Amino acid sequence: MVATKKHLVCMKIGGSVITDKTVPFTINQAGIDRFAEIVAQLQKDLGSSVDFLLGNGVGSFGHFPAHKHGLRSGAQTNEQWLGAAITHNHVRDINLAMANALNKLNVPAFCLSPGDVCISKNGSITHGSGAVVKELLGHGIVPLFHGDTIYDSVKGVHIISTERALLWFGKALRSMYERITFIAVTQTGGVLDNKAAVITELARSAAIPTLPGHTHDVTGGMANKVALLREAADWADAAYIVSNSRTDIQQALAHRQAGTKIL
Question: Which domain holds residue 103?
Fold first, then answer.
């Protein structure tokens, strides 16, 4: 795969949009279908000028079992290793549901589990099979990642967020694309201030307002999401947190005002 003048869109649909985070293993089919319809329409409108590297949050399919089996700090006991396997298998279910919705609309989404292609050391990815992703993109396939449990050489197991997987592979592809946009699609439509209004632009030095979250969230919630998108902003051309709407996503792709722009 050689360098192109294409635009790569690294986009993650949040677990809060496609699952009910308060009820274990509960799909929000309307959220899944809406996102799939947006991606399908964007592919029709933009054609070969844009490649998509997608990811889905796992919501209640991952956070509940990971919390139950105490995987935040890794896996050392037999019970935790069993929990890692159970969590890995559950998150593949929601990934497949997202892929099926995209496939039905002729989007060639290809499920990729970080647990199959990534290894970490004390929480930092040391290996990721970028060659697979490059080849898929080169053939017009849409790689679809998800949050996962991956092998960690120090902790046994590490919980990797969808954003972290997209960051790793997106950054590896930087030299292949003229432009890269990183987008996180969330239920809130952006970062909210203390009055629950969307902040249109979040400076690098700005603190992230603390709002109530789910106690079983094992990937750090909005604060961690912003931290990861700030990393993306270091090498991508733009990074946004937006709503699951075609208008917001189109605006972000054009680098216009949408949701929260992360600096």
Answer: 7-262
